[in-house]
């Protein structure tokens, strides 16, 4: 079964860990516990085809930015995540994407999805849907606005990414390995704008039995679910499973 390395990228507190935990364990974590690194393995079935995702939840905080390069090299699929309620996180994501592109060389070496998280905080929206969509077009990848509170949307985001990876793999193999920039085919138009707008998607694996135990995380400081929790809590390293 193919093992697909997927990396979650984005600034601190945009919701990377909540997205990972929602996807893997099916619940939403309200507290903010800054990540250093968490790694999970999750067997999934997308469009009736099984795969195993190795999901790397990275540190969004600047202090750990130096190690980002290694994730970028290893990853095949990338969730590029910002918070729709935090314009700085959107600007940071553009820089992270530029770093990704530099590391990979060109689009043929990677598949991405741009994810605007915290859609439930629409009243505090600081990044418009169109801005997110425009950036995704520039990055030649699909775009979704989601809320980590909503498992269906989270599953759909991963399913869209897996489809995009597969599309790119078949494009690469049929073109003799040259690949094609932005070969994301039909899956590029995923759009979950509007709460509850996401379909349930093809990513199954809804049970938690094979998931790494993300629920064992210990919180350092409860920060609620505000758009940009402050202050930053202590950081702990967790390499959960591999
Ligand atoms: N309202 C709302 N809050 C969210 C959402 N996703 C995450 N949060 C909250 O935002 C805070 C930060 O979430 P994390 O998942 O820890 O953020 P992160 O991107 O992993 O942060 P780092 O590990 O520092 O990089 C937490 O308090 C979460 O509960 C969401 O979709 N909606
Ligand atoms: Mg985190």
From TrEMBL:
Basic residues composition bias: residue spans: 233-242
InterPro entries membership: P-loop_NTPase, Small_GTP-bd, Small_GTPase, Small_GTPase_Ras-type
Keywords: Cell membrane, GTP-binding, Hydrolase, Membrane, Nucleotide-binding
Keyword Hydrolase included in the entry's annotation: yes
Record carries keyword GTP-binding: yes
GO molecular-function terms, A-Z: GTP binding; GTPase activity
Record field: compositional bias (Gly residues): 194-205
Primary location class: membrane
Subcellular compartments: Cell membrane
NCBIfam families membership: small_GTP (TIGR00231)
Region Disordered: start-end pairs: 169-242
A GO BP annotation: signal transduction
One annotated Gene Ontology cellular component of this protein: plasma membrane
Protein name: Ras-related GTP-binding protein, putative
UniProt biased composition (Low complexity): 183-193, 206-216
The species this protein was found in: Bodo saltans
């Amino acid at each position: 079964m193919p093992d697909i390395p997927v990396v979650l990228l984005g600034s601190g507190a945009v919701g990377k860990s909540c997205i990972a935990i929602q996807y893997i364990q099916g619940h939403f974590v309200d507290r903010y516990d800054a990540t250093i690194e968490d790694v999970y393995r999750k067997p999934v079935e997308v469009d009736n085809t099984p795969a195993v995702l190795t999901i790397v939840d990275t540190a969004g905080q600047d202090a750990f930015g130096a190690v980002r390069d290694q994730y970028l090299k290893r990853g095949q699929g990338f969730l590029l995540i910002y918070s729709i309620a935090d314009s700085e996180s959107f600007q940071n994501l553009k820089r992270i994407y530029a770093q990704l592109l530099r590391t990979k060389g060109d689009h043929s070496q990677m598949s991405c999805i741009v994810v605007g998280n915290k859609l439930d905080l629409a009243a505090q929206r600081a990044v418009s849907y169109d801005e997110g969509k425009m950036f995704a077009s520039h990055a030649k990848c699909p775009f979704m606005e989601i809320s980590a509170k909503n498992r269906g949307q989270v599953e759909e985001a991963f399913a869209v990414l897996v489809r995009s990876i597969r599309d790119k793999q078949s494009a690469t193999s049929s073109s003799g390995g040259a690949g094609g920039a932005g070969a994301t085919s039909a899956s590029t138009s995923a759009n979950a704008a509007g709460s509850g707008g996401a379909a349930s998607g093809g990513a199954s694996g809804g049970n938690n039995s094979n998931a790494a135990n993300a629920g064992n995380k210990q919180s350092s400081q409860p920060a609620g679910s505000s758009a940009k929790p402050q202050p930053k809590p202590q950081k702990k390293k967790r390499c959960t499973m591999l």
